[in-house]
Write a structure and sequence with these properties.
The complex is a heterodimer.
Chain A: H1 15-19, H2 29-53
Chain B: H1 3-19, H2 36-41, H3 45-50, H4 52-65, H5 80-86, E1 91-92, E2 105-106, H6 121-126, H7 128-140, H8 153-184, E3 193-194, H9 197-206, H10 208-217, H11 219-240, E4 249-253, H12 263-283, E5 288-292, H13 300-303, E6 311-315, H14 320-327, E7 332-335, H15 339-344, H16 347-361, E8 367-368, H17 381-394
Parallel strand pairs in B: 3-4, 4-5, 5-6, 6-7, 7-8
Antiparallel strand pairs in B: 1-2
Classes of the chains: A mainly alpha, B alpha/beta.
């Protein structure tokens, strides 16, 4: 990853950016983070599969 | 263990041993059979390309009827049903834009109509995933709107059906691969997807002609983009690789050979980023199938820089005996059986050629029989069979 990029491979919308849209998380933030990042990675893979395989 | 599972284990051991540049019990046969599977099964190109269930059935029929040590679960790799759901513009689809008996075609963009404009290098380098989502994807599809433009029903539905369809397509591979294993005893040949950074810029962003102009007009920006794409392409390759680390990631090489790039250009634009990815994958135990389409022998001095066994070197137009001499001590070699011979020759001519390659390249192990390029619907079925039979006849150690 070069110095300009702020998003790591596997990331489209970082969790911190998504969280800013929500009220304060009352429960376990790590569960919310984990699921967000897993689903976000699916979108990342969808786009790259379009580029590489289709 | 069933007979098919025993057969599967025997074949997998033979295939993996050869890929590690060692000597198995016999030279493995690993055809990359694309539209020729449709010919064998009695299907059209349209059927196997647009409805992957036909493609799966066709490869299963081939696995039952030929004694292959490994093959690709679906070498008709672009499922055009998904292409049409998304509205992707750069393919000619069998049965729609071309006849039902013609393989799908990739259409190179005109120089002034590339999917990425000449002044967009900086924004692509800065945040690749944003560029893909906001600029590239809307541009290569018919209805998806870029940010700031009015969304449409067709665009929204294209995204929804496209994402659901891709998920279904990849999910279908699990049961299909189980059928290959349990019904035919045939292992997969590869797992995962990799392209060279330079190639993907040429294929899907700038087009080859516009990229060639960029090599002279803005060379530093081209290098910067290859570097920016490197971690992403390595990541996708790793994520899609075989978790068991037996099978190599498929690397389909398009524009790195002569006459597309000179050796000097290859050294500057093509090789550094690709070498980095291959070495990164190998450091994690992932081998790469280096599918060198075209004439690559001029680049062998670079290829030889790679760690021993890190790649399986697939030979297309290059002289396979020269390849063996240059890098055979480092890497397994596959391919080298000319597609024109398979299309226009006789079974005896095919057998004699395979025999010559086995005796010259495979005598100490580390060779896998296959055609030079993927086999399409011009391959004669009797020659496909003869290619395998020659390995069984002349390839036993």
């Amino acid at each position: 990853m070069n110095e300009q990029q702020t998003k790591h491979p596997g990331v489209c919308v970082p969790f911190e950016e998504a969280k800013a849209d929500w009220p304060e998380i009352q429960g376990d933030e790590e569960i919310v983070r984990k699921v967000w990042e897993e689903n976000d990675a699916e979108a990342y893979m969808f786009l790259w599969q379009c580029v590489l395989s289709f | 263990m069933s007979d098919k599972q025993t057969l599967f284990q025997e074949r997998l051991k033979r295939y993996v041993t050869a890929m590690r540049n060692e000597k198995p019990d016999r030279v493995p046969v690993r055809p990359f059979a694309a539209e020729v599977t449709a010919v064998h099964a009695g299907f059209t190109c349209q059927q196997v390309t647009h409805d992957y269930r036909y493609a799966f059935e066709a490869i299963l029929q081939c696995c039952r009827d030929y004694d292959w040590d490994a093959t690709v679960p679906n070498m008709v790799y672009v499922w055009t049903g998904l292409v049409k759901s998304l509205g992707i513009k750069y393919y000619a689809v069998p049965g729609i834009e071309v006849s039902a008996d013609t393989g799908f075609q990739y259409m190179e963009p005109p120089e002034n109509g590339a999917w990425m404009r000449e002044d967009e290098y900086d924004i692509f380098v800065k945040e690749p995933i944003d560029f893909l989502a906001n600029v590239w994807f809307p541009r290569v599809t018919q209805h998806v709107a870029p940010p700031g433009s009015p969304a449409s029903f067709r665009g929204n539905m294209a995204m929804l059906s496209g994402m659901a369809s891709m998920k279904n397509y990849f999910a279908a591979y699990g049961p299909h691969i189980n059928r290959m294993t349990n019904e035919t005893g045939t292992p997969c040949a590869i797992s995962g997807i990799l392209k060279a950074p330079f190639d993907i810029i040429a294929d899907k962003f700038r087009g080859y002609r516009a990229l060639c102009m960029d090599l002279y007009r803005q060379p530093d920006k081209v290098v910067a983009l290859t570097e920016a794409l490197t971690p992403h392409l390595a990541f996708v390759a790793e994520q899609t690789a075989d978790p068991g680390r037996n099978l190599p990631v498929g690397l389909w090489l398009h524009r790195g050979c002569l006459p597309f790039l000179s050796p000097k250009q290859f050294e500057k634009f093509f090789w550094p980023s690709l070498k980095q990815i291959i070495c990164t994958l190998w450091s994690k135990g992932i081998q790469t199938l280096f599918y060198a389409e075209g004439e690559w022998n001029g680049n062998l001095k670079y290829i030889s820089e790679l760690p021993d066994k890190s790649i399986v070197y697939h030979v297309d137009r290059g002289d396979i005996f020269e390849v063996h001499k240059a890098v055979g001590h480092k890497f397994c070699i596959s391919g080298g059986i000319p597609n024109d011979l398979l299309a226009f020759g006789t079974p005896d001519e095919v057998k004699q050629f395979v025999k010559k390659v086995i005796q010259g390249v495979g005598k100490d192990g580390g060779y896998i029989v296959d055609a030079c390029a993927i086999m399409q619907n011009d391959t004669k079925l009797e020659n496909l069979r003869a290619m395998g039979e020659a390995a069984y006849e002349y390839g036993v150690y």
